[in-house]
Amino acid sequence: MKNVLLACAVALLTACQQQKQDELDTIAVAAPGDIVKPLMEDDDSLPEPRRDINWDQIEVFPLSRALINHKVPLFTTRQHLEAAIGKADSIVATASNDVSGSQFAGDFHYFYKDGATFELCRDSLACDEFIFTTGNSLTVDNITLTQNTTWEDIRKIFPRAAIQAENEGRTDVIKLRDSFLKDEDSQVQLYFENGKLARVVNFIPC
């Protein structure tokens, strides 16, 4: 009987030792050439979460108050504009089916000057797109924009709009509100080329 109990004890001990060896064999260890660095407190393995900015929190650029070369508004009469910056390079009639969004309820023509595009209805002009060329500027209050204005310059003036653009992966356009009314969905879009301001678009949704 003692021999039977002794044999069982030996078998049980052998089985436990084999199980422990199997567990050790399954533990992953670094290869001799690997260097395992401890995780430091300053290590940040997770990216900074993107914080989108609501449209009603984006800065306003009141385009209707902007002055060309400190002289004449973007929304003015043909007589005043031509007196300030010269006559149109060309005036082109529009077909109603070619216009997706207009600033005038009636028929109008496109008025082109130095690359800029205006809508001309009777004697009234409204800017669609302003192109920055040498010597041209736009001024609103204490803000002056030129072809030398950089993305970083705009980021200081309109930080929330710039951050939201970067959240969307854009560094070529910044979208601003054109009115303090929260339900307005029209935009002032600042487009950049090679890091510098190239044009301003008065975007009106269809």
Automatic annotation (TrEMBL):
**What's the name of the protein?**
Lipoprotein
Source species of the chain = Chitinophaga polysaccharea
